[in-house]
Amino acid sequence: MSQPESASAPFPKEKTFSSYNKEQGKIYAQVRRDYHPKVYQTVLDHHKSTGGGLDTLLDVGCGPGLAARGLASHFAHVLGLDPSEGMLAIARSLGVVSSTSEPARFEISTAEELGANLSPPVPDASVDLITASNAAHWFDMSGFWPSAARVLKPGGTVAIWTSGEIRAHPSMPNAAAIQAAFDEHQERDMKAYLEPGSLIVRGRYVDLPLPWTLPQPVVEFDQTTFVRKEWDPNEDFFVGMPEADLDVFEKVMATGSAETRWRQAHPDDVGTERDVLKILRKKIEQLLHEAGVEEGKEKMKAAVYGVLLLVKKKA
User: Fold this and answer.
1) Could you give the angle at the alpha carbon of 25 between the alpha carbons of 183 and 184, nearest 5°?
2) CA distance 56 to 79
3) At a CB cut-off of 8 Å and minimum separation 6, what does 286 contact?
4) Is the four-CA dihedral 32, 21, 202, 65 of positive or negative sign?
5) What average pLDDT does the structure give for the chain?
6) Pairing between strand 166-168 and 299-304?
7) Which residues contact 134 (CB under 8 A, 6 or more apart)?
8) What pLDDT was estimated at residue 11?
9) Shortest CA distance to 246 belongs to which of 297, 196, 287?
């Protein structure tokens, strides 16, 4: 079961085909789980312990504003950037405020621009912490890292995380067969709608380009202090995970990038017996019933393999 990663992040090929409108953004925000406080605390602890300040937070590929909201109370100024107006409308509706009670700003910009297109633009060396949650796999990292080096203060931090591939938890009834059903769904129904970023998520960002792995390295960042933290499936990565009924499961899966593209390409099939997610759900129900689960009590339990990357700008 691969993670239904965000389709709102600033990856150029996504901006017209799977960027969310306001209604899609609303649904996304309603069903997507927020990250567990331990994720935010890990970011903050590392940032502060390595000399990072708490003046300005920049959340890039912010989507509906979950990470901005999760960290806002620690920063005097908060700015979220995303190319999707639908997502930004939801983020603005959250009423996110900073530690100084200043309303967070949510503006249209890509990861490569990092606010250079705004008026006024994000100033050079003005940002303490840059975050990107389940979004960086859509960035052009050769454009992102130089921009990050430009806007970050010396000693600032870039925190990038993803939930990685989400799989059927081994403790589920008929777990192996359910995982096989997911794998078949991905191969048969989603393969044509996958982008390279989806594969980077499955690899837990092992192949995500870092400043020192680019053809033209961005020397402002310190490779020697790089931290990669992986979440064990038994650790909390999301709030309210890993178990949900199949109604919630179906809604969450429908917000995924590949699934969003499929739905855009097959609008007449959405919600019908030809809907690939309906077909998958019926298969899961069948497998759970075969394992003795009563009708109406079907639940999905997920194993989440999250990862967090922490990169420091040289002081």
Assistant:
1) 10
2) 8
3) none
4) negative
5) 89
6) antiparallel
7) 3, 5, 6, 9, 61, 63, 161, 162, 163, 201
8) 35
9) 297
* Spatial CB neighbours of 256, under 8 Å, sequence gap ≥ 6: 2, 3, 4, 5, 7
Q: Which two tokens stand for residue 251?
A: 């809604």
Has domain 22-168+196-239+303-313 been given CATH number 3.40.190.10?
no
Does the pTM exceed 0.85? no
Distance separating alpha carbons of residues 257 and 193, to the nearest angstrom:
8
Domain ranges of the chain: 22-168+196-239+303-313
Q: For residue 36, give both structure tokens.
A: 């567990």
- Residues 303, 241: Cα–Cα separation, whole Å: 9
Q: To which H or E segment does residue 212 belong?
A: none
pLDDT in tens, 77-121: 999 999 999 999 999 999 999 999 999 999 999 999 999 999 999
Q: Residue 230's beta-bridge partner residues?
A: 307
For 214-272, the pLDDT digits (tens) are 999 999 999 999 999 999 888 889 886 567 899 988 888 888 888 988 999 999 999 99
Residue written as token pair 């995970």: 241
pLDDT band at 152 (very low <50, low <70, confident <90, very high): very high
For the stretch 173-218, pLDDT in tens is 999 999 999 999 989 999 898 888 888 998 899 999 999 999 999 9
Phi-psi region of 218 (alpha: psi -120 to 50; beta: other; left: phi over 0): beta
pLDDT at residue 10 in the model? 37
Percent of the chain scoring above 90 in pLDDT? 72
Read off the tokens for 305. Answer: 């393999």
Q: Which strand ranges, in their side-by-side order, compose the sheet holding 307-313?
A: 105-108, 77-82, 56-60, 127-133, 152-162, 307-313, 221-230
Structure-block tokens of residue 43: 């970011």
